[in-house]
Amino acid sequence: SVMSFYGALDVAGRDRNCVDEDQLLQATVAILSNAATIPEQSAQLLQLLEPMRSPSMSRTWLTDAGSMRFLNQIFDIQRALISENIFRYPRDATFLRRIPQDTKD
Q: 88: alpha, beta or left, given left = phi > 0 and alpha = psi -120 to 50?
């Protein structure tokens, strides 16, 4: 699905479903960065990522245990995307991630 938005990922494998992880991360960051500039989409991203700020909230498909490794990698690449553009934290704010015991991150 990332390819339908980004359109330029190199794929390999018999079923053409093997994608370079770094390239996928960069493409996803590009898509999320663009979405963060559109008010309606930015509001939707905020809603999907809200469980990162409020752990008592139910996880969304973007913050469930299976997605958190990928989301943490996105955060490591583009911290400003989530902390500044989506959560609207000041540039010098410290964003601490709580890593659940059941993940490998």
A: left
H or E element: which one contains 19? strand 18-19
Q: What is residue 7's predicted lDDT score, i.e. its pLDDT?
A: 57
Q: How far apart are CA 20 and CA 10, in angstroms?
A: 7
Q: Is 16 helix (H, G, I), strand (E, B) or coil?
A: coil
SS3 64: coil
Per-residue model confidence as pLDDT tens digits over 25-61: 888 888 888 888 889 988 998 898 888 888 889 998 8
What is the spatial distance between Cα 35 and Cα 54, in angstroms, rounded to a whole number? 22
Query: With contact defined as beta carbons under 8 Å apart, do 84 and 45 qualify?
Result: no
Q: Are 9 and 25 in contact (CB under 8 A)?
A: no
State the chain's mean pLDDT as an integer: 77
Measure CA of the first residue to CA of the last residue in the chain; give whole Å: 25
The model's pTM: 0.67
